[in-house]
């Protein structure tokens, strides 16, 4: 991506010099990658907390620690803030031009290890996530290294897709879709709630594609190979791919994010259409997804 001279967002909280006690030392290697797979393969935040840190491990108070970001980490922080700024520009314009009201941008929280959120304690092992209760998206930047090393997903547009996907959840929240879906999930069986979750995640993939469509049209930032990076990333974070990688087989009933084929399809649809009206994943049957 060509981002030279592009502005960085001011809607950022940099907590990288803060950590959550003992939980902060886990990083994204070893046990931590198991936690990523736990979340992406159907586990909820509680499952992640239990699997990674054990009983009570995330109840520690956030404290100051000695931390100096590397040059690579600083570059990723600047990049993330530029991508967030792009989503602000794209979605503000889209909301205004399509009669959706005023776009309220989310806050990006950069942290290391663990941090407090309105949705509970967040941890690096969970990967990037969005909390609608405080309208913030949380990223430990070491996740991008894990994407490359553990999943083979690399490239600036692949990283941008990850951020745009979480912003897609914020768009769902602003439009009321996310909260309505969560309310329905609370009354559903586990299997039905998983199927609803798939629809939430595929729509967020679609919205990430919509952002990419207008990012390219407005700024001409996409270069040769960028789209392939994002599509490859979407494929390796599909539930079927991750489950087969982790255990050698996939259990469809436990899918919460969609298959590799589904995630690629909805990302590409958003990229090609740029029209959120074509991203109603909730109106389709399972076979149509």
Distinct helical segment count: 10
Mean pLDDT: 82
Please estimate the helix content.
Answer: 40-55%
Which overall shape is indicated by the principal axes computed on the Cα atoms? globular
Q: Could you tell me the strand content as a percent range?
A: 5-15%
Give me the Rg, rounded: 18 Å
Number of domains: 1
Largest sheet: 4 strands, mixed
Order of helices and strands: EEHHEHEEEEEHHHHHHH
Q: Strand order of the main beta sheet, please?
A: 1-4-8-7
Q: Give the low-pLDDT segments.
A: 21-35, 37-64
Distance between the termini: 30 Å
In short:
This protein is of the alpha/beta class and 289 residues long.
Explained architecture:
The structure is a single chain. The chain is of the alpha/beta class. It has one domain. The chain has 10 helices and 8 strands. The strands form 3 sheets. It has a 4-stranded mixed sheet with strand order 1-4-8-7, covered by helices on one side. The chain is globular, with a radius of gyration of 18 Å.
């Amino acid at each position: 991506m060509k981002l030279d001279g592009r502005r960085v967002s001011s809607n950022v909280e940099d907590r990288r010099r803060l950590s959550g006690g003992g939980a902060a030392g886990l990083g994204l290697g070893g046990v931590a990658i198991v936690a990523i797979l736990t979340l992406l393969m159907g586990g909820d935040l509680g499952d992640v907390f239990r699997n990674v840190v054990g009983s009570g491990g995330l109840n520690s108070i956030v404290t100051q620690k000695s931390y100096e970001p590397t040059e690579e980490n600083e570059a990723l922080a600047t990049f993330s803030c530029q991508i967030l700024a792009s989503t602000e520009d794209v979605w503000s314009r889209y909301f205004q031009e399509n009669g959706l009201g005023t776009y309220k941008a989310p806050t990006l929280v950069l942290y290391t290890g663990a941090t407090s959120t309105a949705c509970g304690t967040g941890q690096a092992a969970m990967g990037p996530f969005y909390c609608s209760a405080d309208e913030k998206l949380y990223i430990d930047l070491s996740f991008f290294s894990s994407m490359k090393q553990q999943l083979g997903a690399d490239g600036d547009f692949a990283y941008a897709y990850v951020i745009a996907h979480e912003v897609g959840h914020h768009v769902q929240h602003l439009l009321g879709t996310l909260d309505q879906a969560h309310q329905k999930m609370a009354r559903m069986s586990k299997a039905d709630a998983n199927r609803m979750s798939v629809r939430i995640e595929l729509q967020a993939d679609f919205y990430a594609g919509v952002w990419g469509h207008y990012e390219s049209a407005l700024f001409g930032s996409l270069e040769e190979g960028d789209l392939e990076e994002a599509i490859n990333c979407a494929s390796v974070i599909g539930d079927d791919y991750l489950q087969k990688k982790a255990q050698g087989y996939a259990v469809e009933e436990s899918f919460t994010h969609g298959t590799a084929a589904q995630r690629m399809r909805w990302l590409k649809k958003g990229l090609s259409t740029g029209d959120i009206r074509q991203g109603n994943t909730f109106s389709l049957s399972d076979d149509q997804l």
